[in-house]
Amino acid sequence: MAEKLRLKVVTPTRVVVDALVDEVQLPGMLGVLGILPGHAPLVASLSIGELMYRHGLRESYLAIQWGFAEVGPDAVTVLAEVAERPEEIDVQAAQEARRRAEEALRLASGEEFAHHKTVLEAAVTRLKVAARR
Amino acid sequence: MPSRLDLRRRIRSVKATEQITKAMKMVAAARLRRWQARILEARPYAEELALVLRRVAAKVPERRHPLLQVRPEERVALVVVTGDKGLCGAFNANVLREVSTILEQRRFPEVELTLVGRKGLEYFRHKGIPLASQHLELMGRLTPEGAYALSRELRETFESGRVDAVYVVYTHFKSLLQQRVQVEKLLPIEREQLGGENGEASVLFEPTPQAILHALLPRHVDFQVWRILLDSVTAEHAARMVAMDAASKNASEMIDRLTLTYNRVRQATITKELIEIVSGAAALGGR
Fold this sequence. Notes:
The complex is a heterodimer. Chain A is α+β, with helices and mostly antiparallel strands.
């Protein structure tokens, strides 16, 4: 059985992570997916959330917005729309986005509501990940 | 024969032009390098996306997603990708010629145009062809978000049934010296891109293969639009670099020629003056 997982996180503009890790936690559509080496082949849809990968005792985090993950016994490939490391996140911009989304949510309805809710989730996730720095 | 003053003026003006074309060439070269790097950066994503798409599609036998729906091509949308600026050789002209040919041959009963880039608009503004939309600021500062917005618009046009297919005419960057105009079908998504139907049976899907496929297909289209625009921008910079290089060469040749003429004129004047002095002296001495 494979000892390690090769984690690759790619976005349309760059390769964010390409590393050997011991464990990956993905923000799945239906909840967090924990992946260890030797996992059965899986294709999953991802939502907005935090991606954690652990190497030894060191845990690293990424803020992910939408995407797909392909899991094999010794590899995890994540196709994400946006993937940011904690140090890359503009905290002020995220706070501002959260404030504006919260305000808009109070007035919005229907489709607009869903849109603002997504924006809010993205902002909250980014702030959470940024705090992991 | 032109006067020395005239010649000097012309040489100065050609030199100024040469400086400009050289500077533009350098700028184009720098931008070309940057965009070429972005094409390379997009490649891993492209490969993975194609792979996941095929893997998921193999698990979903019935393919009734709206983006896959093939209809008789009564009315099509033609996306014309040009640049905002000229001075890039035949880059824009080649695209526009291809579009004109398609329109003249009447390959489709009805066509509506979506114009990306100012040059396309300048050309088609008064041609009486229905313009669905125009995107003038897109190419100047191209971002994935901008490309996705265009893609969303095209998807909606297709899904609403207003058009039966979407084609894109753009320039493919093959190498510095080779850029080819291509006509590509964007929608409906062609079946070959989904691959065959014999996937590994043991793969798990979350939530379900259908749900993933339905989420993937629009993303696939978005990414294709980004890829196409990226390709076109890179080709534009390559074309501009080559055109400006040729212009700089022409300017420097012209300066050489003008300098030669200038020296000849100067020499002729000196000779003439000498002859006048010598013959004047001879006339005096003979008396």
